[in-house]
Every structure is written in structure tokens, then in C-alpha cells.
Amino acid sequence: MATLAARRTIDWIGLVPYVGLHLGCLAVIWVGWSPVGVAVAAALYFIRMFAVTAFYHRYFSHRTFRTSRAFQFIGAVMGNSCVQRGPLWWAAHHRHHHRHSDDVEDIHSPRQIGFFWAHMGWFMTQENAVTNFRAVRDLTRYPELVFLDRHHYIVPALLAFSMYGLGALLEAVAPGLGTSGWQMFVWGFLISTIVLYHAVYTINSVAHVIGGRRYETTDDSRNNWVLALLTLGEGWHNNHHYYPGSTRQGFYWWEIDLTYYGLVALSWVGLVWDLRSPPHAVRERHRRRPAAEPS
């Protein structure tokens, strides 16, 4: 096991592409904006947020529903487009987080290492860039997933080129839309990706600091309805840490969980099945008693 110091030493050379993605967003000053450019950026944000929450998180990390091998691969490709490395890397680190949530072995705990490190510093080290294949042996038997994990830059590169191509095509055939290749690249790929990044990161940082705690878990996980809206349901984080085997993270009807609704829709056409919800008795057990409620 790597030393704690090694796991907290930033790899500044490896960080160059990540910083470049952020700085590239400043190109919006020169390329401007258009309704179609912003719409594509928003659409890709929501599609890719669904991919990372439904597949990278609820499927690959927790196996909370079942699907075919073909659709599993499609979900992996969609998740790969989020530019958050491969599905095995993501799942391995997330499984480690649940085994050690907010204890000294948790690599992104605000309690242990601070808010910034939990938000984004943890994946900037050489040690944490490595996939722990032993933690995801159930996934390594699929060579297509191993390939995506080892070559996780291919799908994002294709997406980036396709955004430029789409913008250039629209500029040629529909100049009235006011977009261009570079504008679509900046909005559809760069800005959409950076906003997606930091929305996802809030679950490791903000959702362990700000929000309500329905259940007495051993970590600091919290439910935060604002984050739930931004991340399509991931903000019901205390629910999730209490019962991580549930596909549904919004345990009650008023807890909006758009990822779960999307998976239900996919189940209607047979693409996924065996979606799990917490049993009623489990859901009601160990709830924290509100302060105003008599003992």
C-alpha cells in the first residue's frame, strides 16, 4: 500500500491536461456564444451526468441493477465521455471510499484531509491515478471494459472532435444559428465538461459537510436537495451511505432522483432490470429523531 504522503503528493506534470481544460474555457471570450451552443452544452451535461451517476456509480461501483453485456458497454462508453477516467478506475476508488468513508484511509474525506482535497485534490496524485484491479475483479473479466479503462482518453477525444465537427457543419449549412466549430468545441466539450466535473465533485466534498442527516451512519454523509438537483439524485448522499445497494437514492417520493427515473424508463424497454429500492423496514430503521419530536 502506498504511503499516506505519496497519496497526497500532487503530480504537477500529470495535472497539465486538467488545468488546460479549465483554462480552455476562457476561449469563450473569443468564440462567443449562441443559443444552439449553450443548448448542446446543457444537453451534454445532463446526458453525461446521467451516465456517470447511473453507470459509473450505481451500476459499476455498486451493481444495484442488471443489464446486458452490450448495454453495459454502452454505459461504460457514455461514462467514459465524462472525462473522469475509466469505469474500473472510478468503481475501484468509489468502493474503497465506501469501505473507509471518512476514516483515515478515505482518500477524499473533508474530515480527514480538508475540503479542497476531498473536492479535487485527491485524484491529482500518481498513486491515486492507478486502477486497483483487485477491487473490481467482477469487472475485469470483460476485456472491453479493461480496454476502456486503459485507454480512457479515446472517447473524450472523439467527443471533442465531434463537437468541433458539429459546429463547423452547422456553420456551413445553417449560418443563421451563429455557431462555429470552435464555439461548439468550447461550449459543447470544454465548458460542459468543467461544469460536470465540479458538480460531481460536490458529492465528495459538500455532501459530507452541508445538509441533513436522516440516518446515523458512521461517516459524515448528508442529504442535500440542491446537490440532488444538480447531480440528478446523487445529493441524497446520507440515504446512499446508509443503504448503498439501492438503485434509488431518493428514498421518499418528495426526494427527486432523476437518475432513478431514467433507469426506470430504461427498464420499461428492457435495457435494464432488477432495479433495487430499500425495503420499507430497512428504510425506516435507524432514522434520526427530529429535534422537535418528543422522545
Give a description of the structure:
- Helices cover 53% and strands 1% of the residues.
- The protein has a two-stranded antiparallel sheet with strand order 1-2.
- The protein has one domain.
- α3 crosses α5, α4 (69-80) packs parallel to α9 (143-150) and α10 (154-173) crosses α11.
- Residues 291-295 have low confidence and may be disordered.
- It is mostly helical.
Give the secondary structure arrangement, pairings included.
Elements: H1 16-24, H2 28-31, H3 35-61, E1 66-67, H4 69-80, H5 87-99, H6 110-113, H7 115-121, H8 137-140, H9 143-150, H10 154-173, H11 181-201, H12 225-230, H13 237-242, H14 258-268, E2 272-273, H15 280-284
Antiparallel strand pairs: 1-2
Helix pairs in contact: 3-4, 3-5, 3-11, 4-9, 10-11
Major sheet: arrangement of strands: 1-2
Question: What would you report as the Rg, rounded to the nearest angstrom?
Answer: 20 Å
Helix residue percentage: 40-55%
- Sheet bearing the most strands, described? 2 strands, antiparallel
Query: Which spans of ≥5 residues are poorly predicted at pLDDT below 50?
Result: 291-295
- Determine the strand fraction and express it as a percent band: under 5%
Number of domains: 1
The total of beta strands comes to: 2
Task: Give the termini separation.
Answer: 46 Å
Give the averaged pLDDT, no decimals. 93
- Count of helical regions: 15
What is the global morphology? Answer: globular
Secondary structure class reads mainly alpha
Q: What is the H/E string?
A: HHHEHHHHHHHHHHHEH
